[in-house]
Amino acid sequence: MTDSTRLPAPLASWVETVPGPLKAVQDAFRARENSQMREVTGRAGDYNVKVALKPALYTRETRAYREAVPHLGHAPALKDSSADLLALFLTAVDGEPLKGEEPPARRRAAHRQTGPVLRRFHEAPPGHQAQDQAAHHVESAQSGLDKHIAQAGDHLSTAESDTLRRLVSTLPGLGPLPAGWRHGNFRERNLLWNGRCCAVIDFQRSEPGPLVSDFVKLTTSLGPDHPELRTALFERYGRSPADAEESALAAFAAAEPAGALVYGPRHGDAFVTARDRRAVERPMQEGRR
Q: Which of 81, 90, 194, 245 could form a disulfide with 241 if both were Cys (CB 3.0 to 4.6 A apart)?
């Protein structure tokens, strides 16, 4: 019957108050290292149960599901939440995480489908002054970079550290950037593609801020090797970044990999280390041209 032994007892009891007795519980294919995700089946169908690692992540995600995600259309819906358990009970959406192994045409189609979805998320009412949050995000990028450079140690050369600092130092001079709801972890693994449409998931880092910062993780993971995916995304997003946003994107992209070069070696994650080593080397190569 119910395989609820795979859920902690308090969580299992809470979950069964929503769909009733569970028929099955299994690991979700999209579980993350900073959350717990289970796929559960009840009499009313399939759902996802997500437990946040930290109260701040739970707070961000529940707020995003209440205020911004309903504007997306094809997306999970929040059915219930528990602040005591840091748990969210979500409807399931079909699809598999988008991967680089997808045939090129399917991958482009997925990015095209994602463009208007992300635009709707960005334009959802932020609930408070997004511009203030955008200014705070700029400040955090600068202060965070210095901290990560110090922590990275020998993983960054002096020349690389200086290049990253130079790029990030341009942010305050770019003026106010377009602001609104930002996903916070927008990358291919958080796009569920079913061959017809894409659903965006994982809103635990969502909050108002500078919109262009939402393209950083995708930029650093894809690199310059797939300009066709950027074109496909922005065609349906409805606009390309303005000049100031392009400069901000380069600056935010410079701040991003320094932190990962701390995380990757510390956790033995060779993929993250290699990916962000390439992201650090890119502005160095561009500076020599």
A: 245
Chain length of the chain:
289
Cα–Cα distance list, 233 to 111, 113, 114, 123, 185 (Å): 5, 8, 7, 16, 16
177: DSSP letter:
P
Q: Where are the beta strands (DSSP E) in 10-113?
A: 24-27, 35-42, 45-52, 78-82, 87-91, 96-97
- Measured distance CA(223)–CA(100) in Å, rounded: 12
Give 55-70 pLDDT, tens digit per residue. Answer: 999 999 999 999 999 9
Q: How many CA atoms lie within 13 A of 11 on its CB side?
A: 21
User: What pTM was computed for the model?
Assistant: 0.85
- How many whole angstroms separate alpha carbon 249 and alpha carbon 256? 10
Computed from CA positions of residues 63, 65, 69, 70, in that sequence, does the dihedral angle turn out positive or negative?
negative
Which pLDDT tens digit goes with each residue over 227-273? 899 999 999 999 999 999 999 998 998 887 777 777 777 777 777 77
Q: How far is CA 22 from CA 40, 43, 46, 48, 253, in A?
A: 7, 7, 10, 12, 44
